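Collaboration report, partner site 2.

Our partner group contributed sequences for two proteins of shared interest, and the home lab folded both. The records are reproduced in the order in which they were received, starting with the first partner submission.
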Amino acid sequence: YPFACTRLVDPSTMALRALQITLCGATRIVAPHMAACMHSRRLFHAPPKASVYEGAAPLCEVSEEQEALKDMVYRLAVDKIAPKVEHMDRTMTMDKEIIQDCFEYGLMAIEAPEEYGGAGMGFHSTCLAIEQLARVDPSVSALVDVQNTLVGTSFLNFGTEAQKAEFLPRLATNAVGAFALSETGAGSDAFALKMAAVPSGEEFILNGSKFWITSANEADIFVVFATVDPSKGYKGITAFLVERGQPGFTVGKKEDKLGIRASSTCELILEDVKVHKDRVLGQVGKGYKIAIETLNEGRIGIASQMVGLSQGAFDTAMGYIGQRKQFGRPVADFQGLQFQYAKAAAEIHAARLMVYEACRMKDAGKNILKEAAMAKYFASEIAVDVATKCVEWFGGMGFTRETPIEKYYRDSIIGRIYE
């Protein structure tokens, strides 16, 4: 009887059990406490209450256009990226054909207006693409993430019309971009940067180094942050547009990383690099504003990456434990394991809801400072937790490089660190 169940069993256990049964294939299960509510409504003939959100779309429901985008990106990831993931990870290289595929599929300028060669879609669409790529390879997802949420966003929000006309079509078709903010002493404290930009007539002379710059090895266009006046603190920070091949500009050491190894992370060295004043992005002394606002969007991009990674690891592990047999039956049938993957599925779903809410708030023009930080924090925590569990579900095989699950674990760690 429903009422007896609700009194004798902890509600959280009932909800988890209901989810566990659903994941095992039964779709007509109703959680006992919900059954009790339905029974009492029938008993007292109470009409259902109208929801204040009646008519609003569920957070995880996307438009037909976005659904088509998700399907296209995931098919690209499965068909063209997946066969090269192991080699790229081992050799720490981003396959050039994959980069070209990302351009040809329109993934490198999703929000840029069509007049600049972009897809003209919203921020949520960008994050959906990032998520789908991360299900197969978080390294490629990171490439597309930085291109859209950091570099592309900087031009869209702060570029002059001339800068947009010059750079956005290139970013949409053949030029990879990088966002150069971090230095050895300016990581979390980003505004402690030391790179100098000294005014000299119509130009600025840039000197200094940048570290931990994602996609630097592949990039042609760099948004570089430097200070024009150290005495002004963060109000001296300015964003400059620097291109590969400029005299004095060098891409230095590529880091040998634990995870997302195909995504390059490099040092940049600038020695007397001359940048004309028309290559200042935004206003002189307003670079801090570009960094703050752009990184808010970047955090949601990272959260999307971590949700996709979690889903990819989960799907891979579920396929394995559904086939792996012990004691004459699949290990997925054992209740001890069922509780674990039910919990993991719920956590992934919760993280996705937080990410999608932040995306929709951004597209609606609302302040996303809190939501972006919360989504990034929660999704990155869940990614590590889920990937760890998935390694354990593989047993001894999970501790080898014979399966892809260990890579998901290595890739998940960075989510807690960057952005």
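Second partner submission, folded after the first:
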Amino acid sequence: EYSSKLLLLAMAMLLSLSYAVSNNNRKTIVDTIISLVDPAVYNRFQLPISDGPVLVGVKVGFNHIGDIDDNGNTFYSDIHITMDWHDERLAFKNHHDDSDNKTVYMHAAFSERLWLPGLSIINEVQSVRHNVPHPNVLFVISSDGLVTYSERVSIKALCDFDFQLYPMDTQHCELVFQSYHYPQRLVRYEFSNTVNMGNTSKPTIHSVGAQLVAPPLKVFQFHDITDADLKTNVSTFKYESEYTSLKIKIRLIRRTASFIIQYYIPTNLIIVMSWVGFWIPRNVAPARATLAISTVLTLTILITTSSRSFPQVSYVKAIDVSYAIAFIMVFASLVEFAAVCFLAAREERSEDEHRKITSQKMDYLSKFIFPCTYGIVTIAYIVYLVPLSSKQALYFI
């Protein structure tokens, strides 16, 4: 029993000593890195390398996309940006014997003492850096001088919306990343081999229609986002220098089911209701007049109230064409009733038996002409717009 107690005591002392040594080693590495960034030996305004451009790898992870402002031409995204670059001045593998400690996680405030790439988002309108409960920043230094900087930000960015096919439209929104300080000859940015959407990631190719990850991002009024396009450009501005720009283009395909239920179906029912007057005898003028005027007023109110929630643009949208067709059809029914009443009054004063059937013939023909005309126009509307909508959705470059 006495020997077992001595054995337990020896094990406890050994574990304590091991923890103390490991903790001391850890402190030694951190102290070494702090000494490496001493302003006396480290100039944070100087590039990490002098022979060639600094290569910065960029990864972008999307946590959320929403608040699509049609009238303001903006969209909101919650992302985390990760940048990797080598700074040989921070290499500490030769400063310590412990080969197990390859990376050190530093506090976010430590980044203020280092050189940073200065990446900015060109089409940003407003951004928020998250600091609850602490700054959402990941800062890692590897033993070979590899620096990893990751931060979560919420961005409100501009997007060039095109509503000509609304509500069967597809929008292509971009986030454009570019250095605001260093031209391409000093700092060059490249996409890393993964882009994250949601909680998982997969390797993606830097080409049109790059497939991203599951689960897809859910966006209000749009289909789930499952892919994006990564593109690297070189732009020239600011004293004729060339700057590397990274573009992430996101495709937003609008859901049309709610528009069909809320707008297209009520509109078509109002049009059909205006045709009921063709079956009402022409001598029941009050009933036909009430029906014709009611359909016109109802459709006018529907167009007026619903248009307030549509994008306010200066050009014609697809749904505007639909409403114009519907209004013309309903108004034509009202004009047809007025023409029937005029012909009926003239027939009463005429003794010609052949002319007495003119108003009846007009009602009879209207029962077929109006539905057939509207059917042909609707088919043409669909045949013309659906391929354009599909082409716009596939145009993803």
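Feedback sent to the partner group on the second submission included the following. Residues 358-394 form the longest helix (37 residues). The chain has a mean pLDDT of 79.
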